[in-house]
Write a structure and sequence with these properties.
Elements (H helix, E strand, L loop, with lengths): L47 H7 L5 H14 L4 H9 L3 H9 L9 H15 L3 H24 L40 H13 L5 H11 L3 H28 L67 H21 L11
Helix pairs in contact: 1-5, 2-5, 3-4, 8-9
The protein binds a DNA duplex (14 and 14 nucleotides) through helix 4, helix 5 and helix 9.
Subcellular location: Nucleus
Protein name: Homeobox protein cut-like
Family: Belongs to the CUT homeobox family.
Length: 348
DNA sequence: TGCCAGTCAATAGG
DNA sequence: CCTATTGACTGGCA
């Protein structure tokens, strides 16, 4: 029941509305930060970092929920909000709003965006100010469009913020000849991801040797494999946090006692980590691994474009797998803590 | 060195 | 345009 309606600590209350000031930030469209480097507006020279350090428990889930509402209600985008208010890029904002980590698991740095959101929400003029910025941006954009029509390719001297050089430029095909300053961005094929996920199930923390092998088998750079494991691990971890939050927020009736060691049931929403439908026909290899769950493999090898299964429980087996992998992960840590190298087999 | 938390930024859909 | 996803990078820690 507890939850937290305005669990905001007094600190963050912000009655005094910053008086707009000489807002001359114009002309130079898309000038990076306007007021990111933090001497917080109406707060006696307190920097955000100081506020973060002082602020008490904050309900990150509630905050992001509110922010999403306010943004959509007012037709304000994540990009604008991120760049002007949080000092983050659109992708980061999207991620943050979609799956906020619980406050107590955030580092000081990680808490900063939430404090800023809190501040923003408490400022009665925040929305209007943002809308004004949006207007100005659009105006600047129009101006640019207009001027570019009358002259040669006007290369903006801007700080490469919103620079979409495309559209009208006669560049039939991007047969790039430009000095590879732009690394092509690796895009793993679904099957490659599958293979990596399978490998993860076996060993969340592969040894350099294993990584090397995987890289060779899949024809990927080892750094790509390494990065993939880092990313996957942390994203799985975050998934678990979210389940934790939802479990806490959810059932308010009676004690939600979970007998099992890890309270993390509740239906977790579709996450990017979930594969449409794992199971490879073969997949006969997984015998070792500390934990492995059989999981009745199903046919249904529909490649992607799932969305089918109008009503069934797609996840569950995947949830179980996540838990299994999580256990392996925990074991890995315990072993490390125990100063034991090579997380090899244990006897249970 | 390896790990992690935060992010960035390219991209894929809408 | 906008949002979601995700490989790669950065800084901190041990």
């Amino acid at each position: 029941v507890s939850s937290a309606e305005e669990s905001v600590k007094s600190q963050l209350e912000d009655p005094c509305v910053q008086p707009a000031g000489p807002e001359s930030s114009e002309a130079s469209e898309s000038q990076p930060d306007t007021l990111l480097p933090l001497p917080v507006p109406g707060h006696a020279g307190l920097s955000i970092q100081e506020m973060v350090a002082m602020s008490a428990e904050v309900d990150t889930y509630a905050i992001t929920k509110r922010v999403k509402e306010v943004l959509t209600d007012n037709n304000l985008g994540q990009r604008l909000f991120g760049e002007r208010i949080l000092g983050l890029t659109q992708g980061s904002v999207s991620d943050l709003l979609a799956r906020p980590k619980p406050w107590h698991k955030l580092s000081l740095k990680g808490r900063e965006p939430f404090v800023r959101m809190q501040l923003w929400l408490n400022d009665p003029n925040s929305v209007d100010r943002l809308m004004e910025m949006k207007r100005l941006e659009k105006k600047a954009y129009m101006k640019r469009q207009h001027s570019s029509l009358s002259e040669s390719p006007s290369r903006e001297g801007g700080v490469c913020m919103g620079d979409y050089s495309r559209a009208v430029s006669p560049q039939p095909i991007v047969r790039d000849h430009q000095p590879q300053l732009k690394k092509p961005r690796v895009v793993l094929a679904p099957e490659e991801k599958e293979a990596l996920k399978r490998a993860y199930q076996q060993k969340p923390y592969p040894s350099p040797k294993t990584i090397e092998e995987l890289a060779n088998q899949l024809n990927l750079k080892t750094s790509t494999v390494i990065n993939w494991f880092h990313n996957y691990r942390s994203r799985i971890r975050r998934e678990l946090f979210i389940e934790e939050i939802q479990a806490a927020v959810g059932g308010k009736s009676g004690a939600d006692g979970e007998s099992s060691c890890d309270g993390a049931e509740s239906d977790s929403r579709a996450s990017g980590l979930e594969e449409p439908n794992p199971d490879e026909p073969a997949a006969s290899g997984h015998t070792d691994a500390l934990f492995t769950f059989p999981e009745s493999s199903s046919a249904l090898a529909s490649s992607s474009a799932s969305s089918a299964t109008p009503s069934s429980n797609p996840r569950d087996s995947s949830l179980r797998r996540k838990k299994a992998a999580n256990l392996n992960s925990i074991i890995h840590r315990l072993e490390k803590a125990a100063n034991r190298d090579e997380p090899h087999e244990w006897e249970f």
